[in-house]
Each structure stands twice: as structure tokens, then as C-alpha cells.
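Handoff note, outgoing to incoming analyst
You'll be picking up this chain. Sequence as last confirmed:
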Amino acid sequence: MEDKNYYEAKSIHIFSWPFTYVKDNHDKVRKDLLSSGRWVRETEWKNSKERFMLHQYLSKKARKIFFDENSSKCEIYQYKMDDQGEYNYFIEAKIDEQIKKTFELPIDKIELHLYDFGVGILSIRVLNFKYRSIEDIKSINNLGRRTFLPFIPDEPDEGIILCAEQLGIKNRVNKTENIQNFREKIKTEKYEELIQPVTFLKSLLSGDLNEKENEQWKDLEPTADDRMFLTCLIRDKWLSEQIKQKKYSKSNIQKLLYSIIYVDSGDCECQNDKMREELFERAGYFRWSDCGTLYACTNYSLTCITDEESKESKESKESKESNVIKNTVVKPFVEEYFYMLSLTLAQKQGLILFSERAGEIVEEETNDSGKITPEKAEKIMKMQEDYVSFQNHFMILEISSQEQGIELYHLFQQQLLINEEQAILNQEMSGLYEVANVSASLRLTTIANKWAIIGVVIAVIALFVDLPKINLFEKVKCLINFIENIF
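Most recent structure output, in case you need it:
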């Protein structure tokens, strides 16, 4: 498959797995990636039309995050594949008690964003040319993102599980595979081991799909629940026409669109008309709905539904229709909006990291008098410095100078509750900083008082030594006057 064909797919699915690592191990993580021989760091934006387009779309501050050659705020790594048909994303689904369905989808790109404050985002971009029905696309979305069991069924063999029966990656070239059988996992592993995500995620980081026990990546902490973040573009002529005619306000069409946007496993799972309408309106971005294109974002998904080319347009790749959809919808979605989303996900994980760090400092023991120790105060000050740096570099107001870019970016932040997370963290940081300052002031006051007492003692000694001819009554009188002048 050639790279240019990604915009001809019926649907594009990007599964993003965020994780944290120890910030001080950043150099080690980088070294481990490069030593695998599979990961290549991307430092140039001038090497392709897509990267040039992304560079021009981003604001100056956003370019510094992704494309500053002298900075490592976010390092971008690409996973080397011999060809784009080398890896397939494999999903085995149980449709009902009798029917199982298998999806095998070519992996177009595997990309890693490594943020220098201890957050990584591993993304797998999958193309769907084969499965045309909306129900199949919904199954790919829902089952392809689930990395471990959300609950344990009463009957391991037959009970309902919300994830796939099997999920993994196959290498079509050397016939290797790394596939998780979730039902077998229930039978063979302890409950605490069932919350470990599918092994192929860390295997990709190690550069070896066969490596299922990854010692070098054991300290990585997944930050999502059992679901990866989903980014999906769907090309469907009928759905696009409904959007163009504004039929999404009708109950049955809205339910279908809602189930796609909110990644419901079957029919619409919100069974209250008023609430569904509110959630649909809140998630939707309708700037281009009159053209048949709808964007929507939730706190775990980003979706685009747009038009599908006619048969004649597909046969003529230089046609106007083909180029308009490719250049105005598909390319911006998989490049510009994906990077905007990556930064927003990183912001959320960064805020959570600082909140956890603040909580750990609060839980540390104080000294015997109940006051903050100098060591603890120093940790608070260091964390405050790191947080200010994080805010200045990553919590940018405008990611693009383009109007629609600004609007979508703020929608992403709104749906991922970035402003709320930041407000709570600011309160935590302000409280800790105030406590540290008060504690430091008390320590300085205590030290000053001690030195004052020492000064008094020295003065008394001097008084009795240097004034030998003055009688005792006069000496005591002088001492009382001296103390009154000090206090």
C-alpha cells in the first residue's frame, strides 16, 4: 500500500495510548527507543508536504514544542516499517452467541510523542478499506481501543465482555504476531494481572513484536483506563447528506451520530432525549456542517464524519472532488488536528502528574513540631518552578493562528476538562506555596529570636566585664534599660 492511499480509506482509526515515565529518565527512554533500531526521531518539518503544512498551521509557540531543533519539549518518533502492509491490526469480535467476526486492518503509521515532563503518547494509525458498514466501523472503534477487561464476567467462556475476544498486531512479512486472548487471560491470570494493558503496546516501544515481557519498560504507567483515546475519520455519503440537510436534529439520525461520536458499542446508550441533545451539541463542531462535514470531540474520542467520493472521482485521482476532500478534510484531520489533540492529551496528563506530585509532598511526614521541614519546603519550591515552566511552555492559549484551529483546540480543552484541572491544581499549588512561605517565615523568626537572645547574653557579659567600677545596682539598671530598648 502506498502512503498516498490513506485519504482513500473508508475510515481512518488512530488509537492513542498515553503513559507516564520518570522525568529524570528521559535520556534513558530516548536511548532505549533508538537502540531498538525500529524507532527514528523526526527532527525536520521540511521533509514532506504534510509536515510543511503542519508547521505552517501551528502558532509560533506550538512550533517550538514540536519542531524546535534546539529543544526537546516534545520529541517525535516514527516506527520504521518495511512497507505499510507489514503490520495488520487484528480484532476478533463476538457479534452474538453464534457469530464471531474478524477485522484485519493495515497499520499505516506508528508514532510516539515524548514530552519532556514525563508523558508519552503512543499512537497507531489504522486504515479501513474493506469494511463498509457503519456498524463494522463502530465495532472497530469500540473494540480496537480496549486494552484490558473492564470487568470479569460470571462465565469466562460465554459471559459478556465489553472488549474484543482477541486484540493484537500481526506482522505479515515474517508471520509473527502479538495477540491478546482476553477470555484465556481470565482463566490463567490473577485478578491484579488482568488490569495490565495488551502486551503489544510495550512490545512496540521495545521494537520487537515478539517480546511480551518488557523489563526496560516495566516502570511506564498507563494513564488511561481500559480504553485508548480514539481519533476516527469516517467517509460516508449518506451520513454526510444527513448532516448537510441538518437532519441531525431528528431523533433517529441524532441517535446514530451520537453512538458514533461517543463510541457506543451498539445503539445509542443515552436514553434521555434532552440529555442526548445537550451532549451532542456540546461535543459537536458545526462550522462545515452545510458542506456535509461534522467534527465532534468527547473526553475520550475525536470524530470526523465527511463525504465519500463518487465512483468517477475515485477512478480519476486528479479530479476536483477528490482533491477538495483530501486537502480540506482528511489531511488536516490526520496531521493538524491530531497534533492539536496530542498536545491537549499531554496537557491533561501533565496537570495530573503535578497534582499527584503535590499530593505526595502533602502526605510526607512533618517534623516533631508539626512544621514543614526545610527539605519539604525545598521540594515545594522546586515543584513550583517546574510547574511555572510547564505552564509557560505547554499551556499555550492559541495553538494556531487559524480561526478553526483555535476553536477546535478550545473544544478539545473543554471536553478534556483542562481548565477545570488547571484551576484545581493552581489552588493546590497556591496553598502549598503559602504554607512553605509561612513555614520559612516562622523559621526565620525563630532564628532571629535566638540570635537576639544570644545578643542579650553577650551584652550582659560585656556589661559586667567592661564596667568593673560601676556598682551592682547601676549594672542591673543598665541591663534593664538595654533589654527594654531591644524589646
